[in-house]
Every structure is written in C-alpha cells, then in structure tokens.
Specification:
- The protein contains eight helices and nine strands.
- It is α+β, with helices and mostly antiparallel strands and 245 residues long.
- The chain has two domains: 118 residues, Orthogonal Bundle (434 Repressor (Amino-terminal Domain)), CATH 1.10.260.40; 119 residues, Umud Fragment, subunit A.
- It has a nine-stranded mixed β-sheet with strand order 2-1-3-4-9-5-6-7-8, with helices on one face.
- Strand 6 and strand 7 form a beta hairpin.
Length: 245
C-alpha cells in the first residue's frame, strides 16, 4: 500500500469529493488517481502535494514537514476511523435537522489545514540543531509521544553538533549530533552539555561525592578535571546520538 495514496484518499474522503472531481481539479485521469490511492501506482512527493493542494489543503506547514515525514508518522488508520465516525455523526444530525449539513459544510471551509495536518503537531516536532555557538544550522523531525520527547517538553529539546573530537573515546566525533534534554544538575555517568567560559562542551560526568564531580573527555586519551558541583553549569543531558557513516 502507498501511504501517500492513503493520505490523498483520506483527504478526498474528508472533503466529500469524488475521484472524478479531484482528477479534474488536478489534471490527471480518474483511473490514475484511483490507482495511486490503491497503491498500484507510485507517486512522487511533489505530485502528491499538488493533488492535495487542488483539494484546498493549507500549506502553512510545508516549510517544516515533507509529505514523506507525514506519511511515515501519522496513524492513517486511526485518522480514517475518526473521519468516518465524524461523517456518520454528521449524517445523523443532517437527518434530524436538514439544515445542519449546510452549517457543518460552511464551518469546515474555515478549518485551517486537514485532519492529518491538524493532528501533525501532536505527533511530529521540528527539533533544531545548534552548533557550538548555539546558532541553528538545521533541524530534525522527531515523534512526540504522550506530549513529550524523551520524557521532556518538545519545546525544550534540541540537537547539539559536536564541534571537535574531544569525546571520540565515547563514540561522539566532530559533526555528530546529540539530542539534549533539560537537566538541572549533573547526573552520575551521563554525558552532559556543560556551559564553560569558553563555550558549551560535551563531557561525561562522574560524581566523586556530594560536592565534587569529575568531568571527562576522551580524544587520544582520557582526560579528567575535578570541579565543584555548584560550579558546573549544566545545560542538559545527552540522551541520543546521531552519527553519519
């Protein structure tokens, strides 16, 4: 099955359009559109976007998300079931009060985006990538689970790009990305992003006692420095590594 085809079919059903109507709007044959929806024809992202745009899809999220990102993340089965339930409810209301269908239709035209784009903000988050001077140099899309990413607020997490090979012995080399979540204090045995007078650096923390910690880096050899806990300015804890092969 084609997930992009599923998205097109879901959006078409949500808007109450026939395959012939959509095909005419976007300049393709009805048989081609039905084949895409059935998954027997492969469709490119840009062509799928044109078809969705022809149905009135809002594009406010285009800069952040590709259709492949959406198709890989959104639970299409759940969205389809929600749409069917909503349509069934709307039909029951329409039978009891004929004018309700017209009202519902006019209300729908003012809704920004579509059922799957409206749900997107709860399942995907654009997480920024920062370099050593905390300048944004890119982003990654991460799934949001129960309103959190790695048990942290989605707005508080970010990727830090390793500026050097100081942590090579801990499998983090220059250019690798580590996902950082908020942390208020050093955690024993964790790799953490530390604020120093020279900038932000990655270090592995080892607690010596209640007052001192060991900050470790490992390039050619393991090197450590002892610091007072209350002097260590923790930015966050590193919980995930992304490296290029």
């Amino acid at each position: 099955m084609s997930r992009l085809g599923d998205l097109i079919k879901l959006e078409r059903g949500r808007r109450g359009l026939s395959a012939k109507q959509v095909a005419r709007k976007c300049g393709v044959s009805e048989s081609y559109l039905l084949a895409v929806e059935a998954g027997t024809k492969i469709i490119a992202d840009d062509q799928a976007r044109r078809i969705l745009k022809s149905m009135g899809m809002q594009q406010q999220t285009e800069a952040d998300f590709s259709l492949e990102d959406i198709a890989a993340t959104v639970d299409l089965q759940s969205a389809s079931e929600q749409m069917e339930r909503a349509q069934a409810t709307q039909r029951r209301i329409a039978k009891a009060r004929p004018e309700a269908e017209k009202v519902a239709s006019s209300d729908d035209s003012g809704v920004s985006g579509s059922i799957w784009l409206d749900a997107l903000s709860s399942v995907l988050k654009r997480v920024p990538v920062y370099n050593a001077v905390m300048k944004e140099v890119g982003h990654r899309l991460l799934p949001v689970e129960n309103g959190k990413i790695e048990n942290a607020s989605p707005d508080k997490v970010f990727y830090f790009m390793a500026p050097d090979n100081d942590m090579r012995g801990f499998r983090v080399t220059r250019g690798d990305l580590v996902l950082v979540v908020p942390a208020a204090a050093p955690a024993d045995g964790a790799m953490m992003l530390i604020q120093t007078p020279l900038g932000r650096v990655l270090r592995v923390v080892k607690k010596l006692d209640n007052f001192k910690v060991l900050l470790q880096r490992y390039d050619a050899a393991c090197e450590s420095e002892v610091s007072a806990i209350d002097e260590v300015k923790v930015v966050g804890r590193c919980v995930r590594l992304e490296a290029e092969l």
